[in-house]
């Protein structure tokens, strides 16, 4: 599992909270001090919380569970998209799709439509249409790709969700809670850390802070996936086809070794 360094957390600016007047009372558990009207986050608690999250996420990857990254704010979009892509994680960074978790079957229809349109575009099915219709179809595909591009392979609701800013993504938090989906999130001093399952107290506005935490989570998920895939391969190798084939004659020999029942002696004529 990846190491979490207090020095790196500090350099990433994870310790800067919001202005004192904007604090949430329940955030007091991880506030270290106030300096020049700004709350300072206790990075020792950030480190501990992030390490717990990484252990949990590694297990998700190892067992092949789906993880969804959500980060639609300007500072998070690029970072979240790149980190998710690097580890094979699903992501929504354009906007939160209402009902994505609570009404996934309906949302899934749009995802299937996008996949179908991409296939038709690639195999030349649209060549039969006039140019203006093809242009319209391409425009619609690009629009849907911006929204659903990071979840086109997601078969159902994810096993867990990682959110950068729970105030910004309040709808995602509500839906995840309704579906009992574990929430991992960066929680700043203006939010309620008890509203999520795995809170990581840190600055949720600075790109450096978002990047550090997001890349750590993505990295450990990717490592977990590799361990899980390696374990499956080793399991297959242990049961060789030759072992199964060789087992058959042994059973046959055992059957042949059974003594035959003696019949009644024939009467002499």
UniProtKB/TrEMBL annotation:
GO CC, alphabetical: cytosolic small ribosomal subunit
Which InterPro entries does this one have?
A: Ribosomal_uS2, Ribosomal_uS2_bac/mit/plastid, Ribosomal_uS2_flav_dom_sf
Instruction: From the UniProt record, give one GO term of the biological process aspect.
Output: translation
Name the UniProt key words of this record, in alphabetical order: Ribonucleoprotein, Ribosomal protein
At the top level of its lineage, which domain of life is listed? Bacteria
For bias kind Basic residues, which ranges apply? 260-269
Q: Which GO terms describe its molecular function?
A: structural constituent of ribosome
| Region feature (Disordered) | 224-269
* HAMAP family assigned: Ribosomal_uS2_B
- The name of this protein is Small ribosomal subunit protein uS2
């Amino acid at each position: 599992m990846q190491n979490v360094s207090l020095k790196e957390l500090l350099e990433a600016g994870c310790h800067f909270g919001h202005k004192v007047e904007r604090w949430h009372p329940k955030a007091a558990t991880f506030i270290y001090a106030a300096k020049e009207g700004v709350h300072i986050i206790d990075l020792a608690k950030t480190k501990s919380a992030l390490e717990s999250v990484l252990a949990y996420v590694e297990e998700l990857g190892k067992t092949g569970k789906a993880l969804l990254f959500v980060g639609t704010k300007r500072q998070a979009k690029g970072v979240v998209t790149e980190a998710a892509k690097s580890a094979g994680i699903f992501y929504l960074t354009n906007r939160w799709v209402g009902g994505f978790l609570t009404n996934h079957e309906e949302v899934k229809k749009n995802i299937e439509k996008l996949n179908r349109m991409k296939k038709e575009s690639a195999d030349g099915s649209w060549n039969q249409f006039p140019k203006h219709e093809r242009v319209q179809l391409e425009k619609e595909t690009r629009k849907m790709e911006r929204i659903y591009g990071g979840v086109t392979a997601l078969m159902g609701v994810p096993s867990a969700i990682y959110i950068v800013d729970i105030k910004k993504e309040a709808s995602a938090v509500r839906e995840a809670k309704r579906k009992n989906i574990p929430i991992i999130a960066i929680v700043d001093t203006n939010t309620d850390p008890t509203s999520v399952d795995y809170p990581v107290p840190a600055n949720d506005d600075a790109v450096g802070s978002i990047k550090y935490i997001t890349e750590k989570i993505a990295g450990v998920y990717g490592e977990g996936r590799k361990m899980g895939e390696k374990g499956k391969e080793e399991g297959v190798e242990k049961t060789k086809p030759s072992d199964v084939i060789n087992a058959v004659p042994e059973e046959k020999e055992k059957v042949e070794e059974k003594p035959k029942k003696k019949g009644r002696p024939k009467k002499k004529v």
